[in-house]
Known about the structure:
The protein is mostly helical. Helix content is 70%, strand content 0%. It contains ten helices and no strands.
Amino acid sequence: MVEVSQSGERAIDDVVLDAARDCVLAYGVRRTTLTDVARRAGVSRMTVYRRWPDVQSLIGDLMSREWHQVLMATAADEGEGPARARVVARVVAGARLLREHPLLCKIRDVDPEVLLPYLLDRRGNGQDEMLRFLAAALADGRMDGSIRSGDAGVMARAVFLTTQSFVLSVRTVADTVPATEFDQELARLVDGYLRPD
């Protein structure tokens, strides 16, 4: 068992989230239990139950962490140049990384109902973080003149919704078209939408 200390709370959370990811990848969300996660993490069940009362809250935190890591990974694709070009590069990179992300692919393929609340009813923490990033990046682009005027929050939501469809729905139309072509089309859509009049 892993010992839990006050200073090690974050490390324990990461160990448990890593174990939850492994369980979901192995069994799917519906077949994952907090007991399975605790066993795989090498911690007591009470350590897990104190932090997450149920699998749903644990999976919510896991998805938030994983999507945060994707957002951070897109910084490598940002490159140089005006803000619009940097935003477009990160949006396309994020869509590609999410579309190929093992956790998202497993949930989409085995337990798609887990995603439905985040598509139809409410946003999760990861989605809120992405919207904050987009709104800040669009505001930067307005300052350097590479992005048109408009409410950055509303524009961020429009870019987010467009990108979300390229992540979650692309398989419905990608039967004969390589995914890289959709990345190019997403770049054109987002660039054209943000381009000053």
